[in-house]
Design brief:
The structure holds two protein chains of two kinds. Chain A is mostly helical. In chain A, 61% of the residues lie in helices and 0% in strands. In chain A, α1 runs antiparallel to α2. The longest helix of chain A is centred in the middle third of the chain and has 17 residues. Chain B has one domain: Alpha Horseshoe (Serine Threonine Protein Phosphatase 5, Tetratricopeptide repeat), CATH 1.25.40. Chain B is 72% helix and 0% strand. Chain B starts with 5 loop residues before the first helix and ends in a 10-residue tail after the last helix. Classes of the chains: A mainly alpha, B mainly alpha. At the A-B interface, α7, α8 and α9 of A face α1, α2 and α3 of B.
Chain lengths: 191, 179
Amino acid sequence: MLGLFAQEAPPAEGPSDIVPPPTPAARELARSLEQELGRLRAGGDASAAEALLARLADGVRSEAVFATPGLVGALAVALHSAIAGGDAALVANLAEAAALVASGVPGGHEALASEAGIGALMAVLRAGDAAPPRAQARAAEALSQVALARGAVARLAGTRDLLHRAAMLLCRQVTLPCDSTLQPPPVPPLS
Amino acid sequence: MRGRSRSEEAKAEAALLVNNVLALGGDEQRLRAAEHAALMGAVKALLAQGVPPQRNRAAGILLHVSGAGDPAAARALRACGAGAALEQCLLAPQAGGKGAAADELAAMRVRALMATVNMNAAADGARAARLFPAALSDSEATGSLAELLRHALAGAPLLGVAWRPADVLMPSPPTPPSH
């Protein structure tokens, strides 16, 4: 079945995942960003997260960054930590970074299709008030790109509550009895 | 999409996420979506009331669900009133105009039309004759299907969407006869 949107690869040929190898400079920038992510702490200096986001955005614009497993792993850990710490602003900035990685960085959606990446993005969707609408929008955007990675849909489906969480977002400000009718299925932990 | 509230943006992205998962996730995901009453309710609301990109994505979701090979998905889709929502969308006067919003609405109509065709194809013969007569007998609908098929045969995207001839000619597997 076709009918995908512009951001998507046609499924008839299968998701496209041919990614050029990273340049040494792109790897170095990813490593540097990974280290900065590791230093971010919930409730810490909000400007540090914004600066990191700006550096990442610059890297994406100039195609000078590559989504290494280390960068994505650090992003996932930082997201979980920010959610656990209830730092809504940090969650939003990190979700924004994830969306940038998913849609603008070579290999980004493939790298984020790991269990850690999907788990962190799903955690944003499940976070309730700890994740403001901007964070949820960016997490959904990132996941929509992750879905295009080879084998990712099965992993996404394995979270079981994906459609439920998406429905919760869709129900916002629409007059539907979301809270009373939506019964989320049990969510198995992501190891 | 500039100027929309964050919640509106989240809705558009969530709709894209659901669309992509259903496009690539196979019948299991499509059936799960069809049977998720709140999701289908939200999608219908988005189709009727959303801004153009949201409406387009909502039509995409219904298109994918309507293409499920599992008859249970077709039954769930009919039961939730998706057909009426699609028909209402198709019979509404076209906004016209040019630009991104007009393209989104035009693409939405094509998707809604194919979803309606799929629903018709998935129904049994007697029921199919009664489903969506107004939406499908409209001359614009016939013209749109012909244009869609022309593009599919030529391998040319229509409004940014690449269709295969089989998607237009055999949109949905026939429903097994019920005894």
